């Protein structure tokens, strides 16, 4: 009896420690938007999660028609790269024109990772900040009064000179957000910082099965059950 109980508890603990799979919203997939959307477009049932996203732009209308990178499309994550993602006007999200993209989620999400394309360094050996394009991501949450409050700002530096300019911003810990704002920072590879928003990974906050359980918790519980069973067996 004791061996069967211990085996079952350890199995449950091991299953609880397995991290969940985040949903990938691939903005390089042309089917995400119906055609080239103007500012104020909806992504419905984003990545099959049931969450809707309202996407709007400043500085011009959104553009999802740019061709994807001829090389440098990442294997992980597996972006389609039918386009290079979401930009504004004639191409990308550009600093000198004060362009930005805002994504507002119908319900809160746990943000895991953000992906960019066309984010370049001036040359492969660039170490000067002035030669390195930067993407800025603002993280906002609802304030409970119909508005939003900014919680954090992320800065993603270019890591490539060519090959699609792919860059990823991996959050140190899963962060709950209701709104994201994307704009270009300082640094340039030519005459202005610009980039395309390629996608993001997130977990719906109502997907309780998808919320990772801290690894120490199930192991602690398993140890407690095992000790209890051992005491009963000795008694």
Describe the protein's architecture and organization.
Helix 1 runs antiparallel to helix 2. This protein is α+β, with helices and mostly antiparallel strands and 235 residues long. The protein has two helices and eleven strands; from the N terminus they run H-E-E-E-E-E-E-E-E-E-E-E-H. The longest helix has 19 residues, at 216-234.
Short description:
This protein has 235 residues and is of the alpha+beta class. It has helices at 2-17, 216-234, and strands at 23-26, 41-43, 53-58, 62-63, 87-88, 93-94, 100-117, 134-142, 148-157, 167-184, 194-204. It is globular and about 45 Å long.
Give structural attributes.
235 residues, alpha+beta, 9-stranded antiparallel β-sheet, two-stranded antiparallel ribbon, 2 helices, 11 strands, 15% helix, 36% strand, globular, disordered N terminus, disordered C terminus
Based on helices, strands and strand pairing, what is the structural class? alpha+beta
**Unreliable spans:** 1-19, 208-217, 225-235
Number of strands: 11
Element-level helix/strand string: HEEEEEEEEEEEH
Helix content: 10-25%
Please tell me the overall pLDDT. 82
The fraction of residues assigned to DSSP E strands is 35-45%
| Radius of gyration from CA coordinates | 22 Å
Please count the helical segments.
Answer: 2
Q: How would you characterize the largest beta sheet?
A: 9 strands, antiparallel
Span between termini: 14 Å
* Form type: globular
Secondary structure: elements and pairs:
Elements: H1 2-17, E1 23-26, E2 41-43, E3 53-58, E4 62-63, E5 87-88, E6 93-94, E7 100-117, E8 134-142, E9 148-157, E10 167-184, E11 194-204, H2 216-234
Antiparallel strand pairs: 1-11, 2-3, 3-7, 4-5, 6-11, 7-10, 7-11, 8-9, 8-10
Helix pairs in contact: 1-2
């Amino acid at each position: 009896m004791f061996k069967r109980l211990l085996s079952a508890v350890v199995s449950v603990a091991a299953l609880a420690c397995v991290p969940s799979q985040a949903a990938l919203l691939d903005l390089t997939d042309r089917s995400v938007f119906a055609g080239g959307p103007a500012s104020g477009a909806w992504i419905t049932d984003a990545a099959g999660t049931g969450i809707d996203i309202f996407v709007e732009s400043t500085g011009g209308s959104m553009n999802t028609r740019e061709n994807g990178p001829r090389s440098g499309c990442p294997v992980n994550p597996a972006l389609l790269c039918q386009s290079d993602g979401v930009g504004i006007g004639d191409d990308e999200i550009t600093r000198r024109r004060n362009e930005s993209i805002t994504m507002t989620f119908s319900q809160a999400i746990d943000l895991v990772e953000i992906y960019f394309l066309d984010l370049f360094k001036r040359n492969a050996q660039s170490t000067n900040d002035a030669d390195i394009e930067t993407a800025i991501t603002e993280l906002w949450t609802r304030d409970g009064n119909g508005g939003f409050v900014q919680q954090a700002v992320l800065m993603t530096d270019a890591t490539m000179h060519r090959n699609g300019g792919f860059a990823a911003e991996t959050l140190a810990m899963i962060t709950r957000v209701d709104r994201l704002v994307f704009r270009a920072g300082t640094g340039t590879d030519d005459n202005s910082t610009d980039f395309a928003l390629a996608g993001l990974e997130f977990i719906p906050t109502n997907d309780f099965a998808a919320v990772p359980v801290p690894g120490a918790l199930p192991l602690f519980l398993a140890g407690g059950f095992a000790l209890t069973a051992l005491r009963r067996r000795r008694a």
